[in-house]
């Protein structure tokens, strides 16, 4: 495994004044391919940003005009089944899926293999119109192992998921949008800018309501409808015990902008 020098880390994070943080993957010579170092650094960055009360939304992006072209095959080739368990090669995907703060993926050019799964672990995906999505693992003798089969199944249904994963083909952002795989398409080079705009909007919403919405959707998506509706109703009612609910409704009646404090 190649380790980047401290002066040029392969993952960086920055917190903006508007409550939005940016996590950037920066391995330009490998099109930001995920190796163990990068995965661990992303997990550490997410953990630190979750603990930072100034951060309301996290945007995940790649440097050099690329999101993530896949997992580093050179490193992965010689791993044993025990290595995957011992090294926690899927830890980063759990970190993203369990993140309590909204995550937005800003995708340029490629989100393939582990890169596609990284985007799928986020809550919103903004992609440039020339971006490509796919799970090409079958072409190197394996299959998706970090959410690709199950998240795509729940997003696209059986038939499109089977076609995508069994052929390993790439699909353009326009098709991904039509299929409901991504949230929005932008002109090339503008995915990060649009993701930051969305992040700023969400960061201005009441934090407790934002987290409640994310948690309810995350838990409810795999529940039968009746208990999912019960979960939604109980969470809805709990928000009436917050100061932000009082402020939001009073501001609406007063015809003034609300001031939310996360209380």
Q: In a few lines, what is going on in this structure?
A:
With 263 residues, the chain is α/β, with parallel strands linked by helices. The protein has twelve helices and nine strands.
Strand order of the largest sheet: 1-2-3-4-6-9
- Nearest-integer average pLDDT: 94
> Which overall shape is indicated by the principal axes computed on the Cα atoms?
globular
Tell me the span between the first and last alpha carbons: 45 Å
Using only CA atoms, what is the Rg? 19 Å
Order of helices and strands: EEHEHHHEEHEEHHEHEHHHH
Helix count, DSSP H or I runs of 4 or more residues: 12
Residues in helices, as a percent range: 40-55%
| Beta strands, count | 9
Count of separate structural domains: 2
Poorly predicted regions: 1-5
Main sheet characteristics: 6 strands, mixed
User: Can you tell me the CATH superfamily of the largest domain?
Assistant: 2-enoyl-CoA Hydratase, Chain A, domain 1
Tell me, what is the CATH class of the largest domain? Alpha Beta
The CATH topology of the largest domain comes to 2-enoyl-CoA Hydratase, Chain A, domain 1
What is the architecture of the largest domain at the second tier of CATH?
Alpha-Beta Complex
Query: How does the helix and strand content classify structurally?
Result: alpha/beta
- Fraction in beta strands: 5-15%
């Amino acid at each position: 495994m190649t380790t980047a020098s401290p002066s040029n880390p392969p993952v960086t994070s920055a917190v903006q004044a508007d409550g939005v943080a940016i996590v950037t993957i920066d391995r330009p010579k490998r099109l930001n391919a995920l190796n163990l170092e990068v995965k661990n650094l992303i997990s550490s960055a997410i953990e630190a940003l979750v603990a930072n009360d100034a951060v309301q939304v996290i945007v995940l992006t790649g440097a050099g005009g690329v999101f993530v072209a896949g997992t580093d095959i050179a490193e992965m080739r010689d791993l044993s089944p025990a290595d995957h368990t011992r090294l926690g090669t899927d830890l980063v995907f759990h970190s993203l899926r369990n993140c309590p703060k909204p995550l937005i993926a800003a995708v340029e050019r490629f989100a393939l293999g582990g890169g596609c799964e990284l985007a799928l672990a986020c809550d919103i995906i903004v992609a440039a119109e020339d971006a490509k999505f796919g799970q090409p693992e079958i072409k190197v003798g394996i299959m998706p192992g970090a959410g690709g089969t199950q998240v795509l199944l729940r997003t696209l249904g059986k038939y499109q998921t089977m076609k995508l994963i069994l052929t390993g083909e790439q699909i353009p952002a326009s098709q991904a949008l039509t299929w409901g795989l991504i949230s929005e398409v932008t002109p090339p080079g503008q995915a990060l800018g649009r993701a930051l705009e969305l992040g700023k909007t969400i960061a201005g919403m009441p934090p407790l309501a934002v987290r409640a919405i994310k948690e309810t959707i995350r838990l409810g998506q795999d529940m039968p409808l009746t208990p999912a509706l019960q979960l939604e109703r109980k969470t809805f009612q709990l928000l009436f015990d917050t100061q932000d609910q009082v402020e939001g409704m009073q501001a609406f009646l007063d015809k003034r902008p609300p001031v939310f404090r996360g209380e």
